[in-house]
Structure formats: structure tokens, C-alpha cells
Design a protein that fits this description.
The chain is α/β, with parallel strands linked by helices. The protein folds into two domains: 10-47 and 301-431, Aspartate Aminotransferase, domain 1, CATH 3.90.1150; 67-296, Type I PLP-dependent aspartate aminotransferase-like (Major domain) (Aspartate Aminotransferase, domain 2, 3-Layer(aba) Sandwich). 41% of the residues lie in helices and 14% in strands. It contains 13 helices and 14 strands. It has an eight-stranded mixed sheet with strand order 2-9-8-7-6-3-4-5, sandwiched between helices. α5 links the parallel β3 and β4 (146-150). α2 packs across α9, α11 packs antiparallel against α12 (375-387) and α12 (375-387) crosses α13 (413-431). It is globular, with a radius of gyration of 22 Å.
Length: 432
Amino acid sequence: MRKDIIHIGAGELHYEIQGMAEVANDLQRLGLSISRENIGDPVNKGQPLPQWLKMIVQEAVRCDETYGYCPTKGLLETREYLAAKVSSEARVAVHPDDILFMNGLGDAVGKIFGFLKRTARVLVPSPGYTTFTAAEAAHAGSPPTTYFLDPHRNWLPDLEDIENRIMYNQAVAGILIINPDNPTGMVWPRQLLQDVVGLAKKHDLFIICDEVYRNIVYNGRTNVSLAELIGDVPAIVMRSISKEMPWPGARCGWLEFYNADRDEGFRKYVDSIINAKMLEVCSTTLPQKVLPAILDHPEYRPFLAERVRLYEKNANLAHEAFKDIDGVMINRSDGTFYTTVVFEEGVINNAQTLTIKDQQARRYVEELVSAPMANDKRFAYYLLGGGGVCVVPLSSFTTGLQGFRMTLLETDEKKFCRITDTIKSAVLEYLA
């Protein structure tokens, strides 16, 4: 073209979670049976939604107003409901106007980074969830700025390391926290979360906190919301119904803005996000309409607790399966519905293979791995072709670590154990 039309950050946009799904689709068309452990969709993994929840949605569908636009920020009664819930547990005043509904948190991430000044950077965790790391990199047109989650410390970051990355990079304006963390399953301890808030206050930064999995915590852990500790530090908290309810297809998430009026620059930044949403008119009305009724239903908490017990059981089964394998490391997940296995440095290379009995699948995988790629992605392709299990290579989560992330969503314990046994056998063969 006569003019270069490519955005400076276009090359940073990669989402391996779906990339692995496309390879799985190709292998399925060749006749392989695939277990999809790559994406966190409880509904597609067969977790049934209760009838009482469906009845609430059905009642809302009968109302004409459900089909119309809602206010740009979201339904007032729902924002009032959420603001009251946050304020009841928090040390920060949250008003309905501090809440902005989005069409899923993908929409929110796009606006948070899309309307951030290009020279302003946000420290994101590494390993880090791809949507965040890609958005942070794309907005600046350079690799993301990261802090390290250490697998040798149960995935906890080092506070001194975070502060050094703040002090020696004056472009850093904010810090991203994912709590509980995706992809690692780590739950932030209260004191560490408080210390990061202290760093933000000390260095005049804002915080972004993803609390999508806030109520999916187990193994005796308790989760602390940012609202309890934030004090007067400016922050944006992200929440959603997609994982907890679960209703991922609703594309319904929201932002909570804390202390927006305490800093003029942060206030203008928040206003730009709100104004960008105004250009779209509003977010989807139906899920907002039913959200309070679902959360207040007497069966909601028992329903969620039952699901959390499933994830706890699967997390512990996965930990037991991998913990004694030489050459790999696994920390027990205490939140979310993922677990991450790390290959120790140097144990995998670009010459290792797995047995693939299906000849078409073998040729397909061998063609894929003939291209240069991370060694853990190579393993993931062989696992797909030889074992029929789709996982996500850890290197795709913006880290130099090698490994893979798998879900804990399978409801059938025997099937889940077969999946972990298949992966375990593949790891042992690959490292032999």
C-alpha cells in the first residue's frame, strides 16, 4: 500500500490458547479424540448449569426492557448492588458511578491499555496471562515490561525485584496483579499484596487488579480483595461472571475504579475509558439484569462451593501425578482452575519426540515442529498428536520458563486421572 497501515504493536498480538485449539481442531478432523485442557470454559467442559439459574435468565428474557440499551456505565440497580457489596468489605468508598460494565474483560483490557499513554508502561507478571501481556506490549509497540513469578517460591514474586523494576524504569506508571493468578494458580498472601500497594503509593503508581477468580480459592487459602487494602492508592479492579457463575458466553465483566478523584491524571485516564465506552453506547443488558438475582439466590453459594471442591480435588490429583518426576516441577494450585508444570532448565530440546501411532497425525505434527519454536511448544504438539491432550505451552505466557498449563475442569475423576496419566507418560517418554 502507499502508506504503512500496520499498528506498531501488531507483532505483539499472540494468543496461544486459541492457537493450540486450532491445531487440536485439525487433528480432530484427522480422526483423533482430543481432550481440551487449554481453555478455561467450565460450560464446554461439561459442567452443568443449575435449573434455578436458567429460570432466572428465562424470566428476564420475558421482559421487554432486557432487549434494549442500558445506560453506558451499566444498569444503575446492578451498579448500586455491586457498589454496596464492595463498600461493605472495603476500606475505600465505591459508588455506582465508579463501576463500568464491559463486554467481557477482553473489552476492558483493550480499553485500559488502548487509552494509556504509549510511553507509560504497566508492570505485568511473568508468567502472565496472554491477554494482558499482549495488550501491554501492543500499546507500547515493544515487549511487555514484567516482574518475575518464581516457581521456586511457590510462584510468589520478590518485592525487591518489583521495586527495582519500578525505580530503574521511569516509564512504569502502574502494576498489574492477577489474584488468584492465571496461569500459575497462586493466591497472593495478604502481606505481599499490602506491600505492593505500599510500593504503588511510594512511587506514585496506579494498580490494575484482575479478580476474576476471586472466589475460586481452596486448599485452606483465603483470598484478600484489593478493596480491603488499597487505602488512597488509585486502582482499577476487574471482575467478571464468566468463570465464577460460570457464564463465559455472556461476555459480561466490569471495572471498579478506586480513588479516581485523588489524582487528576488518573481521573482523566478513567474518564477516557468511560468515554470510549460511550462511543459503543453500552454493554449487553441481559447478564447485568440477572446478576444480582443469581448472586443472591440461596443456592448460589452451595453451587459455587461444589465447583470449588472439584477444582481443589483435581489440583491435588495433578500435583500428586507430577510432583515426583525428575526434570519437572509443580506447585500445588490454590486458586483458579489451572495448574502449571515447569520443565527444569535444559531437560527439553528440539530433538526429542513422542510416539504418534496415527500416521496422518504423525506427519502433521512433524511438519509443525520442523519450524523454529520454543521447546515446550514442540512438546505440546507431540502431546496433542500422540496423546490427544491439548495443553498450552508455558512459554506462550511471556516467560523464559518452559512447561505447560492445563485446566482442572474435568468433572469425571476417572477421566481426569486418565488425562493426567497420559500427560505424565508423555513427559516420562519425552525426557527418557
